């Protein structure tokens, strides 16, 4: 069972026209659990009267501040309501149930780090850069944004060592030559990147090409749109261990939508396999993992699966639901 903390909004500040910063803490000055760079927390938002919304945000504040957690939230008008709720409704003093930090994007403090942040993707990168600077590592940061006005935390970052940072805004500087930058990296470098899907896809594609052999790539995905064609496949059945119910998942629906169709409530958030909220224990059967959360080793264990996108290789799955 996930541990939930009843945090309070201590501060809400505007970081740019489209981004607000939210600082959360516990009442009575109780210390918050420790976290590592790359970690995120999940907020339970009372954005609808029917059911809460669950949204994940990277922790981007001071790791050694055990009394405050800071997140930065981009207002996405096309969102399903989470970021709009935080921008327009959430206020200082409000109570927000929050999970303890989880980390699907761990920072290994490699000797040579090349950080690439696209837009709001700076949030998990920011603590990594600070950790790299504190450890005296050889680091560089490439910070890409569409508009100059979208940069957040830039001045703070420049205080660490401005000579290691390149900020590139397309409205002012034109298109960035990512390929040229990547070609200059050597095999000792680990690239950490978080940003829009297009940026991450381009990095993966460049790394696949022979010319780029050598550097290691560690990615954090967010805000991807699930492609319907990647969610479909063979029909199979899901048996819910706790209720004993068996449900057929049609070839054109996900386990999550099949459960919803049957009126079974399951906690979910991104619905595109990137956040880990719907992670479910597999009791038997063979999942076909289609998420971006589990590592290769975790996939091979087949102990859990993300039911918003993953399907079954076997005719039946038994889940701990
Ligand atoms: S709801 Fe986010 S991974 Fe399934």
TrEMBL record:
Q: Which residues form the 2Fe-2S ferredoxin-type domain?
A: 234-321
- Which chain positions lie within coiled-coil regions? none
- What PROSITE patterns does its record include? 2FE2S_FER_1, 2FE2S_FER_2, FAD_FR
| One Pfam family matching this protein | NAD_binding_1
Which Gene3D superfamilies does this entry report, sorted A to Z?
A: 3.10.20.30, Nucleotide-binding domain of ferredoxin-NADP reductase (FNR) module, Translation factors
Keyword field contains Transcription regulation: no
**Which keywords has UniProt assigned to this entry?**
2Fe-2S, Flavoprotein, Iron, Iron-sulfur, Metal-binding, Oxidoreductase
Instruction: Read off the CDD domains from this record.
Output: fer2 (cd00207), PDR_like (cd06185)
User: Domain FAD-binding FR-type spans what residues?
Assistant: 2-108
The UniProt entry, under PANTHER family, shows: CARNITINE MONOOXYGENASE REDUCTASE SUBUNIT (PTHR47354:SF1), NADH OXIDOREDUCTASE HCR (PTHR47354)
By what name is this protein known? Oxidoreductase
- Source organism phylogeny: Bacteria, Pseudomonadati, Pseudomonadota, Betaproteobacteria, Burkholderiales
């Amino acid at each position: 069972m996930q541990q939930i903390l009843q945090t309070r909004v201590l501060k809400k500040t505007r970081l740019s026209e489209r981004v607000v910063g939210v600082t959360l803490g516990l009442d009575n000055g109780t210390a918050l659990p420790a976290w590592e760079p790359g970690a995120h927390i999940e907020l339970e938002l009372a954005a609808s009267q029917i059911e809460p919304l669950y949204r994940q945000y990277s922790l981007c504040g001071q790791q050694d501040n055990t009394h405050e957690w800071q997140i930065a939230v981009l207002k996405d008008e096309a969102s399903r309501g989470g970021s709009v709720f935080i921008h327009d409704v959430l206020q200082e003093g409000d109570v927000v149930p929050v999970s303890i930090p989880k980390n699907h994007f761990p920072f290994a403090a490699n000797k040579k780090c090349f950080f690439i942040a696209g837009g709001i993707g700076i949030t998990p990168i920011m603590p990594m850069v600070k950790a790299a600077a504190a450890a005296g590592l050889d680091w560089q940061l490439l910070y890409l944004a569409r508009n100059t006005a979208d940069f957040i935390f830039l001045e703070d970052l420049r205080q660490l060592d401005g000579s290691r940072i390149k900020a590139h805004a397309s409205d002012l500087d034109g298109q960035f030559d990512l390929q040229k930058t990547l070609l200059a990296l050597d095999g000792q470098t680990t690239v950490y990147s978080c940003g829009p899907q297009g940026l991450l896809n381009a990095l993966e594609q460049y790394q696949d090409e022979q010319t780029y052999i050598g550097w290691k790539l560690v990615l954090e995905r967010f805000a991807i749109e699930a492609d319907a064609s990647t969610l479909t496949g063979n029909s199979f059945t899901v048996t819910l261990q706790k209720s004993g119910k068996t449900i057929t998942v049609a070839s054109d629906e996900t386990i999550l939508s099949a459960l919803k169709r049957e009126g079974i409530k399951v906690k979910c958030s991104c619905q595109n396999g990137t956040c880990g909220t719907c992670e479910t224990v597999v009791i038997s059967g063979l999942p076909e993992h289609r998420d971006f959360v589990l590592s290769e080793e975790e996939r091979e264990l087949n102990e859990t699966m993300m039911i918003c996108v993953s399907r079954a290789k076997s005719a039946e799955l038994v889940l701990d639901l």
